[in-house]
Design a protein that fits this description.
CATH topology of the largest domain: L,D-transpeptidase catalytic domain-like
Radius of gyration: 23 Å
Distance between the termini: 6 Å
Number of helices: 11
Number of domains: 3
Helix content: 10-25%
CATH architecture of the largest domain: Beta Barrel
Mean pLDDT: 88
Length: about 450
């Protein structure tokens, strides 16, 4: 590689501390001890046979889906597995504490939390539970009720998605994003100048489909940043995977009611088993809310004349993994069948997984970092790979260090634009270089 400028003067190495802070801020701490899970049993189910979005709701039941397990392979990331099975990053990472989000160990067995307790609201139209970062779309009536459910990205803490009632005011295919003044100003402060509007295409953060709500300036839309699904990453809008928003768009008529709620504690029943699902960490849990949960469970206990497993309740509250946990069998039978986890084969190809083009002479690249540890380098490359629009990145070994290199880009200008995005999104100060010959 020929450096256009003095590498020793201008290249700024990204420290491990900053890297870890970024990871923790975006995806939570990966240093927790993994939760023990059952060993996968055979035969394995086909991944295509696992329902993840569409469910028929049985009368008087509140739980849909199944817990699933999969064995990770080399090169997997949790965001890629999450997207393939229509889960959010929050759902898969909370269900598997201690598993590295970006560089999980090959052979690790993880849980896919593909069962859900329905929110305690009227089952009509679209319901978005901000606590679980999941959208529920109800169609039909009490005799034949169908559910479509998808993970979502929601508003950042400083720009939260507003709760309340709304409806779908209009629908647009390939929308133009008219940049709000507040967003333009926030980007301008960081040196990122946005245009007044962004036409349809890969740079448009609204994606290919948008449902405009009656709440002014708020939308349910697609995204060009799929790794943000399941995170607090928007300016208040609701964001879905590109493949999920397409399905929701097609089945949602104008005037469909939309209810945006916050329910971190969910209690539901299926086949006589009572489940508890918690989406609030111990630090977020309020005494008054926990007391309400205990009162509701005690009422169920009294009416059923069965004993709630209060140890399980305490553990579920403490772990807050967002997974329905059986805490009472009303009929007094075994809960084993309800809690049994089914195992699936690893897909031949994970849907939406970033593809890295081959190195190309005469192309431009970004030297993002040079790190001593191979795992840290692989983690940074994976984070860069999952930016949106895509920025391909790889790790190149060099004696006793590892370089994280992003590209190729067809021009110096394109490389500089990508470098600016890395600086703005990940605080990575990379250097633009041109690949002319092997070192």
């Amino acid at each position: 590689m020929r450096r256009k400028i003095d590498y020793s003067i201008l290249f700024r190495r990204i420290s491990i501390v900053v890297l870890l802070l970024v990871i923790i801020a975006l995806y939570g701490c990966a240093g927790m001890r993994p939760v023990e899970v059952e060993t996968i049993s055979y035969p394995l189910h086909s991944p295509e046979s696992i329902e993840r979005n569409e469910f028929s709701i049985a009368k008087d039941e509140d739980v849909v889906g199944r817990l699933v397990m999969i064995r990770l392979e080399k090169g997997d990331t949790l965001p890629d597995v999450a997207r393939h099975f229509s889960l959010g990053v929050n759902e898969i990472s909370l269900a598997n504490p201690g598993v590295d989000v970006w560089v999980p160990e090959a052979g690790t067995q993880i849980v896919l939390p593909l069962n859900f307790i329905l929110p305690d609201v009227p089952r009509k139209g679209i319901v978005i539970n901000l606590a679980s970062m999941r959208l529920f779309h109800f169609k039909g009536d009490k005799k034949s009720l169908m559910l479509s459910t998808y993970p979502v990205g929601i508003g950042m803490e400083e720009k939260p998605t507003p709760m309340g009632q709304a409806y779908v005011d209009r629908k647009v295919v390939r929308p133009t994003w008219h940049v709000p003044a507040s967003i333009a100003a926030a980007h301008r402060k960081k040196g990122d100048i946005l245009p007044s509007s962004v036409p349809p295409g890969p740079d448009n953060p609204l994606g290919e489909y948008a449902l405009y709500l009656s709440k002014s300036s708020y939308l349910i839309h697609g995204t060009n940043k799929p790794a943000s699904i399941g995170l607090r990453a928007t300016n208040g809008c609701i964001r879905l995977y590109p493949e999920d928003i397409k399905k929701l768009y097609e089945k949602t008529p104008v005037k469909t009611p939309v209810s945006i709620i916050y329910q971190p504690y969910l209690i539901g029943q299926r086949n006589g088993v009572v489940y508890l699902e918690v989406h609030a960490t111990v630090a977020e849990q309020k005494v008054i809310d926990v007391k309400k949960i205990f009162a509701k469970l005690k009422d169920i206990e009294r009416k059923s004349k069965r004993t709630v497993d209060w140890d399980k309740v305490d553990k579920t509250l403490a772990e807050a993994r967002g997974i329905p946990v059986a805490v009472l069998d009303i009929h007094g039978g075994s809960e084993k069948g309800e809690e049994q986890i089914i195992a699936v084969r690893h897909p031949d190809k994970l849907y939406g997984r970033p593809e890295i083009p081959e190195l190309k002479l005469g192309a431009w690249y970004i030297l993002a970092a040079e790190l001593r540890d191979a795992t840290d380098a692989a983690r940074m490359a994976a984070m860069i790979n999952h930016q949106g629009p895509p920025i391909p990145a790889r790790v190149l070994a060099k004696k006793d260090s590892y370089r994280v290199v992003a590209g190729p880009f067809e021009s110096n200008r394109k490389a500089r634009e990508a470098a600016n995005r890395l600086k703005f999104d990940l605080d990575i100060a990379g250097m633009v270089i041109e690949l002319e010959s092997d070192e």
